[in-house]
């Protein structure tokens, strides 16, 4: 199965998956109430320091931001046009911090650990005869593969730039959709080979 997990024995790898997910969730709630862009700068430095603590492989993960460049520039442009540049800077910095924090959890947490951390949230479904593993697996897959899709788009954009000199284009949508569907097929085949959502085990 495709994985962005970085093998290692760092402090981040040793933290429980539930604690990491809870920290990102609480941090998201707090940061969404912050509107001053200067407050996000120390948060950004802290997140980058966490990547640096993983070594060179960790710092390479920061390249994921390239895939967000166009999106972030559009947000800033819209806020500049509407005369709310400071608010736009806060939105962009918030997105960067939260995206990097979520990706940090993905690269330092094994799929099985993430699934075990999410599974208790869906335990009440058992009262209605519904397996909690299927929605838990869905959430874990989204958390795991969202950064990977950003990597795919970033590679497509770099290839497009190398061939045409243009940074991006709407024409990238089609190959990105094809790559995403192909990846979903690969993941589905891998899950099927391991017994499906109920058979996924450590």
End-to-end distance, in Å? 13 Å
Low-confidence stretches: none
- Average pLDDT figure: 83
The H/E string reads HHHHHHHHHH
Q: Please tell me what the overall shape is.
A: globular
The level of helicity is: 55-70%
- How does the major sheet shape up? none
Total count of helical runs of at least 4 residues = 10
Strand content: under 5%
The count of DSSP E runs of length 2 or more, i.e. the number of strands, is: 0
Alpha-beta classification: mainly alpha
Rg, Å, rounded = 19 Å
Family: Belongs to the CbiQ family.
Organism: Roseibium salinum
Membrane topology: Multi-pass membrane protein
Keywords: Membrane, Transmembrane, Transmembrane helix
Tell me about this structure.
It is a multi-pass membrane protein. Its main location: membrane. It is found in: Membrane. Belongs to the CbiQ family. By secondary structure, the chain is mostly helical. It contains ten helices and no strands. The longest helix has 32 residues, at 133-164.
């Amino acid at each position: 199965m495709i994985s962005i997990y970085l093998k290692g024995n760092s402090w981040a790898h040793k933290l429980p998956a539930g604690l990491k997910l809870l920290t990102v969730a609480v941090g998201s709630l707090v940061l969404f109430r912050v509107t001053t862009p200067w407050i996000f700068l120390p948060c950004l430095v802290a997140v980058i320091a966490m990547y640096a603590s993983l070594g060179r492989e960790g710092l390479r993960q920061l390249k994921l931001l390239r895939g967000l460049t166009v999106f972030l520039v559009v947000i800033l442009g819209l806020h500049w046009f509407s005369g709310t540049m400071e608010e736009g800077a806060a939105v962009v910095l918030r997105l960067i911090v939260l995206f990097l924090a979520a990706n940090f959890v993905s690269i330092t947490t094994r799929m099985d650990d993430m699934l075990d951390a999410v599974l208790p949230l869906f335990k009440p479904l058992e009262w209605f005869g519904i397996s909690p593993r299927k929605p838990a697996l869905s959430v874990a897959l989204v958390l795991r593969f969202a950064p990977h899709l950003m990597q795919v788009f970033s590679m497509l954009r770099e290839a497009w730039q190398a061939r045409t000199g243009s940074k991006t284009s709407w024409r990238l949508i089609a190959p990105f959709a094809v790559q995403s569907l192909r990846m979903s097929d690969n993941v589905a085949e891998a899950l099927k080979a391991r017994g499906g959502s109920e058979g996924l085990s450590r």
